[in-house]
Amino acid sequence: MKLSISCDFDGTITVTDTVNALLAEFAEPEWLEIEEDWCAGKFGSRECLARQTELLRIEPDRLDAYLDAVAVDADAKAFFGDCRLLGVPVSVVSDGYDWAVRRVLASMGVRGVPIVANRLIHTGGDRWTVRFPHATPACGSGVCKCAAANAKAVMMHIGDGRSDLCVSDLADVVFAKGHLLQSRTERGLESIPFDGFCEIRARLPEIAALSAAPATPVQKIA
Hints:
Helix content is 42%, strand content 18%. By secondary structure, it is of the alpha/beta class. It has one domain: HAD superfamily/HAD-like (Rossmann fold). It has a seven-stranded mixed β-sheet, with helices on both faces. Helix 2 packs antiparallel against helix 3 and helix 5 packs parallel to helix 10.
């Protein structure tokens, strides 16, 4: 069965979380109270992001300039090139803003990669709202990554945060760091730890080849 890859964006492709960075720089201070309530489990990330986005104060041209300066993993662009050469479908699945994902990938020179993310909408001046076209009733996230990545294939997921937990439980191969790695380790689940895409690139040809062999326990690759 063919390999299919879903890849997180914030803190995985980018060095920092672009949503939190934007809110810290350009939102009304009340965004922090909403963040604390979300961390305490009072509501899901969909409600959290909806409320925080209403507090964002930045004009579109300034937003684009800010995103153009976002630091990314040095090997991320080459990783997408590897996927293309190997014929491995890959998508960016993010619980952040589609505007940020598209702008940063374009700045990287990455084209033609499917993007699943929350829709950031400019409502005029420095005001914004967000829509959730990839939400599901049973999931509190803006993007239900499980639904987005549920393909008839050997699934590989790359991520670092809370939004990656559920989809990683469905994946056959998981590259994990940060909170995701910590959570999976505590739950006794196998992951391939990584710091950057250079490590993923080194393993990708092997995983792509093994996934084509039905008798191979791909989920045991570590």
